Amino acid sequence: MSKWTIVSTPAIRRCSRVVLFLGGMGVATGVWIASGPLPAEWFAKKEPALTSKRDTYPTGFAELARSVKPAVIAVLAHAVEVEGASRPHGSPEVQKPRFAASQGSGFFITADGYAVTNNHVVKGSASVEVRTDEGGIYRARVIGTDPVSDLAVIKVDGRDDFAHVTFADSPPHVGDWIIAVGNPFGLGGTVTAGIVSARGRDVEKDSYEDLLQIDAPVNRGNSGGPTFDIAGNVIGVNTIILSPTGGSIGIAFAIPSDRAKLVVEQLKEKGAVTRGWLGIQFQSVLREIADSLELPDSWGILIADVQAGGPAASAGLAVGDLVSSINGAAIKDAHDFSRKLDAAPPDSTIVLGVRKGGQQKSIAVTVGRSPVEHDIPPPPTTKYDEEDRPPLGLKLHPKGQPNGAEEHGVMVVGIEPGGLAATRGIEAGDVILDVADQPVEAPDDVYKLARDAKEAGKRSILMRIKSGDTAKFVALPIG
């Protein structure tokens, strides 16, 4: 028996009875009974209830796919890690390379080759290769990455006529038709269709927040690819899927365009993202919270903790304060507050509408810089100009504090994607102890010793590096 069984099916125009029930279980789940002729107005032509373009039921996506596919690229990232090989006791350690590659998707946002992808696609890569829909293969530079949002900007040089797409100006509605285009399992130019299933999703794993949920099939290799609305605008950047099998089960998540635009603009212009920080923990005002506080509605955020010495504490904000607006714009919930705060640059002043002790007040707060991203101060100016430094691919800073028994050393605070150090297993947080058997205490020491070695005709220089509790030697190319 089929799942749905129709019992009694006379002509629709004059039906005496139509009954639907769920077969197999013998339990009726829905019954509709009509006796006599159906009203004539039921068959009159009516205007659809939803008349906007976004709600039009599409007959197909062929034209849309043809228009956006040329801007979508496959991204292939290559990384080389050096690990110690097993060796007999007392013999020198032999380092062997371990090659790793990842593939994902991306899309051009300018005619001169700027493209967007995921941070996790290009993270730690020594080189990035892109393949266009027309079959072209190009080398791309990593302009900037942002682990917090999982976004990255890359650049292909040498052309100014790439097909490109733009971000949507407004967020989609739940139920809107969308298509996803990408490179799943290396099958470039793949188009899948679905709808926006939900907005504002938080996925606890890896702290992904405020995502679009879509049901268009998305698989491994789709990461970094675009999700389009039916007008051909990018409404999201595909980032993760929820799946017990590793394949699509119709639950995928994309970074919404309004958040992506803010991050991409900063990465494109500065290579990094600077976020505002107030030093508070906050939560949405749910209905039950609003009821307990005798509030008329459940808009705004409630401050749950205030960090001593932070911008919020200095401005007089306290636990239990209710924030309802930023610069006069109403706050809907915690997601809305985070978005508005991200748009406020550090050192700017914002005015918060705050309900404190039953009274409504306006409190000005100077936005700080996130200590998570800025806990290491910028390197001091050195006597070597940037162009005179050997291109080691490292960003260095004085260690500033003892590292176990070692009193000297230089801290690695950044690795240049595609640089020489990116292929040697060096990571941010490592400490360079010795270079060419000489202890180093400042970045200038490292640059000078590398420069001397290069002038002496050497192609690499030996560094002793401490990573966590482990010390190791690394041969770093110097030109």
Written overview of the protein:
The protein is mainly β and 479 residues long. 13% of the residues lie in helices and 38% in strands. It folds into 4 domains: 40 residues, no CATH class; 210 residues, Beta Barrel (Thrombin, subunit H), CATH 2.40.10.120; 94 residues, Pdz3 Domain, CATH 2.30.42; 102 residues, PDZ domain (Pdz3 Domain). The strands form 6 sheets. The chain has a 6-stranded antiparallel beta barrel with strand order 4-5-6-9-8-7. Strands 10-11-12-15-14-13 form a 6-stranded antiparallel barrel. Strand 10 and strand 11 form a beta hairpin. The longest helix has 14 residues. The chain starts with a strand and ends with a strand. The N terminus is likely disordered.
